[in-house]
Amino acid sequence: MLIEGTTVELLSGAEMVVRALRDEGVKYIYGYPGGSLLHVYDALFQQEDVQHVLVRHEQAATHMADAYARATGKAGVALVTSGPGATNAVTGIATAFMDSIPMVVITGQVMSHLIGEDAFQETDMLGISRPVVKHNFSVQRPEDIPSIVRKAFHIAESGRPGPVVIDVPKDMTTPTERYPYEYPKQVKMRSYTPITRGHTGQIKKATDLLLNAKRPVIYTGGGVIMGDASTELTELSRLLNFPVTNTLMGLGGFPGTDRQFIGMLGMHGSYEANMAMHHADLILAVGARFDDRVTNACDKFCPTAKVVHIDIDPASISKTIQADIPIVGPAKVVLEEMIQLVKGSKKQPDADALHAWWQQIDEWRQRHGGRFRTDDSELMKPQQVIEMLSKVTNGDAFVTSDVGQHQMFAAQYYKFNKPNRWINSGGLGTMGFGLPAAMGVKMNFPDDDVACVTGEGSIQMNIQELSTCNQYDLPVKILCLNNQSLGMVRQWQDMNYESRHSQSYMKSLPDFVKLVESYGHVGMKVDKYSDLEGAMREAFALKDRLVFMDIAVDPFEHVYPMQVPRGSMRDMWLSKTERT
Amino acid sequence: MRHIISVLMENEPGALSRVVGLFSQRNYNIESLTVAPTEDATLSRLTVTTIGNDRVVEQITKQLNKLIDVVKVVDLSEGEHIEREVMMIKLKASGQMRAEIKRTCDIFRGQIIDVTPTTYTVQLVGASDKLDAFISALGSASILEVVRSGVCGIARGEKVLSL
Ligand SMILES: Cc1cc2nc3c(=O)[nH]c(=O)nc-3n(C[C@H](O)[C@H](O)[C@H](O)COP(=O)(O)OP(=O)(O)OC[C@H]3O[C@@H](n4cnc5c(N)ncnc54)[C@H](O)[C@@H]3O)c2cc1C
Ligand SMILES: Cc1ncc(C[n+]2csc(CCOP(=O)(O)OP(=O)(O)O)c2C)c(N)n1
């Protein structure tokens, strides 16, 4: 319906929600209906631009939206009803928040006049979500919906990205009440102006330090991935011939097979990366937040290093480790400026010092880098499975993961050459993330290989989504590294509790092959390494089928290296018996 | 060290709870908190006093700045400033205590703003330590009730906190 004599349309609040998503360029939204959202679901039914994907649990909807965002850099959208729908979404919102992932979550709410009266399916979603969102909105007038949706996307995607919740009371969507609809092109918020470039003086100072460094390390994180800065990072690193290490969130920011890549750093980082950090005289941190899983004890952190820290969020700088040169700005723009400065500079990087530094690093790499032991037993090592995955997919697949030992093995042994392909929950460490994440990616990249690396513990936290995969034809490949235990918990119990395996053993596992078959998918059981390659190739050759590979791996394997608690970066266990 | 942080924020529902939530969520301490609208009805001014080392206070101001509803943040303790707090204190005042309380009140330039045959209610305005000093100066007088407004502050000189 148009306003007479104009092209301005009259829409109900429910229609505005859907139309605004369309105007935002959204193709898929992930959700689950309920009473407070029925008007919105009816509006969805009557159009085709925005397609809704019906999950089996709201947590999965948020993870699907989140994984779309991790793979594309654009905000994913989830739609959940009030009360239990909203609370089921909280884990997914927190997961996105901890990893700074853009997402817009629309939650239904009871009628506005009932708010505060303990109405049916009422929860204070603004209050519940507040600590785990970048911002949240409550719709007070239907005519505000277009501008709120625009603001929500703007806030979610700009600056340091994060999830935004829009709480919509049911009476804001009444079908019979129509208002003029116009989607705002721009947002102006006096209290929110994300920074667009770094301070040139600081960048110059930092570049001087880079050109004088003798033992430099470039340490980069999720900010390079979400900030679309891997091209600039790669160029600068090559110009300087500096070693590069990535956080768990930063993998793929620099090519994993490049000679200059020294692996992940931190608790389960490579020997050479942690040694290089500890001995560095200069650390260039880009889009990384000196997490406690990276630094180990802050007072022993990299005693000889000066720290240059580039981050879009000033609060990430000097939070745990004091920066000598803080640079607030988007990684992409700041790195580009550095590249120009290095290219234009008369001074060259110190080639002799770097030569000696690389010799040292290569020696570390030789000594302990990237090796695990295989023994004579038939039992497969989980690391072998990941190496095989890397081989079979040429390092080109999207790999999602759950949380536990399998996640660390995937991070250590899959060689990511491209950004946005490694999709895992780092900050919150959410078991149950892997399968819905793989689905969210596959939905949007139907022609790419998408593998979910999981454990028999994690997969059971969202296994119901096998049903969604059936409904929407999502032929992801699930690699379940089955060690019959909550391996990561068990490892800590081995190391710190004299192997008292309190509640870390999974009795009564289902027959996964039969289980997935009952959902209409293909199941495979692999017990021997000699069968692995054939089975995996077969699984990936089945282009339009979901394949679940139940792979028996050594239940006693530990993840190494592992930093010694409260030590420095270089204090590590290298195997069950060796320590640095 | 004690800091007085002034925050200019959108006068929106939920804005205050974001600020308070931030403090509890991140384990920052709040000594006192005041908030009220400004001359511009769309803005409120919030003042929070907190105790923390430089690193913590730097994080507090950075995290406050990140809140979408927050327009500006200033740590008043970084420069010269004036701070004021209002206290109303109800005291048992009978016999010779009446005169004694009156004297102490005068020394501190307090005002007696309500009187009954057995009580005085005193109002005192000043920096928080002056209010503390008054309470200790009361000595043996028996305090029935104390209410303090929390601190508000403003920078000295021409510096202003505005849009
Ligand atoms: C079982 C388990 C084990 C783990 N072990 C390890 C380990 O060994 N090593 C490890 O590294 N991690 C490990 N983690 C992950 C860890 O908990 C953190 O999630 C991770 O270290 C944080 O990565 P990050 O520093 O890259 O920060 P992210 O959480 O990715 O944060 C990104 C940073 O970049 C900034 N940023 C965002 N956009 C931009 C932009 N455009 N420009 C500039 N800056 C930007 C943000 O402000 C933020 O500071 C583990 C997690 C689990 C669950
Ligand atoms: C939702 C949730 N609950 C608990 C944990 C704690 N936790 C971390 S790893 C882990 C074990 C994971 O087991 P599994 O998925 O089988 O993987 P494995 O470590 O055996 O490879 C647990 C329980 C968590 N990360 N997430």
Short structural summary:
Chain A is of the alpha/beta class. Chain A has three domains: 9-181, 3-Layer(aba) Sandwich (Rossmann fold), CATH 3.40.50.970; 200-367, TPP-binding domain (Rossmann fold), CATH 3.40.50; 382-559, Rossmann fold, CATH 3.40.50.970.
Explain the overall architecture:
Chain A has three domains: 9-181, Thiamin diphosphate (ThDP)-binding fold, Pyr/PP domains (Rossmann fold, 3-Layer(aba) Sandwich), CATH 3.40.50; 200-367, Rossmann fold; 382-559, Thiamin diphosphate (ThDP)-binding fold, Pyr/PP domains (Rossmann fold, 3-Layer(aba) Sandwich). Chain A is built from 20 helices and 22 strands. Chain B folds into two domains: 2-79, 2-Layer Sandwich (Alpha-Beta Plaits); 82-152, Alpha-Beta Plaits (2-Layer Sandwich). Chain B has four helices and nine strands. Chain B has helices at residues 15-25, 54-66, 97-107, 128-137; strands spanning 2-10, 32-37, 43-51, 70-75, 81-92, 111-115, 119-126, 143-148, 152-155. Classes of the chains: A alpha/beta (580), B alpha+beta (163). Chain A binds chain B through residues 126-127, 130-131, 134-136, 138, 155, 189-192, 313-315, 318-319, and chain B through 9-10, 13-14, 17-18, 21, 25, 55, 58-59, 62-63, 65-66, 68-71, 163. Thiamine diphosphate (TPP) is lined by residues 402-406, 429-432, 455-458, 481, 483, 485-489 of chain A. Thiamine diphosphate (TPP) binds at residues 402-406, 429-432, 455-458, 481, 483, 485-489 of chain A. Chain A: It comes from Marinobacterium stanieri. Chain A: One of its GO terms (biological process) is isoleucine biosynthetic process. Chain A: Residues 12-125 form the Thiamine pyrophosphate enzyme N-terminal TPP-binding domain. Chain A: One of its GO terms (cellular component) is acetolactate synthase complex.
